[in-house]
Design brief:
By secondary structure, this protein is mainly beta. The protein is 13% helix and 47% strand. It is built from 2 helices and 12 strands, in the order βββββββαβββββα. Strands 1-2-5-11-12 form a 5-stranded antiparallel beta sheet. A 5-stranded antiparallel beta sheet has the order 7-6-10-9-8, covered by helices on one side. A hairpin with a 4-residue loop joins strand 11 and strand 12. The chain is globular and about 50 Å long. The N and C termini lie close together (12 Å). The mean pLDDT is 85.
Length: 142
Amino acid sequence: MKELILSRLTRLYGGSLEMDFGDMGKTLYTNQRGKSWEVVRGEYSLAYYNCCWRIVKGDLILYGCTEDEDCLEQIAGKYCLGARLISCEFINGITRRLRFSSGFSIDIFVCTVDTYDQPEYFTNFKGQEINFYNFLTSTEVY
C-alpha cells in the first residue's frame, strides 16, 4: 500500500492550499518560451483552489487559511508534518475533511456555487494529474 506521508503544507496566493507528500525533490520546468526554473515538490502534491480551509485537532481550530503564514509553519511542524493521510470524507456533499494519523484534520470548504467546479488537483512528481479518489481507493487509504 502506498502511504501518503505529509512533507509540506503551503498556503498559496489567495489562501489556497498545497500539500506535498513523500520524499521531496527538485524538478525542472520549461515554459513554451524556453524559460526554465526549478521547483521543489513531493512525490505527490494535492492542491485546493477556490476554497477556504482550516487545520483542526479535536474541537480546537489550530489554523485558518487567512492567518499569518509564520503561524502555519509552527502548526505544521508541531502537528502535521510526518503524519499519514488516513481518510478523505465528504461532509454535506462538497466540504472535504482530510484526516491524518496524528489526530489532526484539514477541513476544506468550497467557495464556489458551481458544484462541478472541482478545486482539487492531485499530481505526481512530474506534474501529471491523477484522479485523487481513484488513487486513494487503489491504495486503500480512502
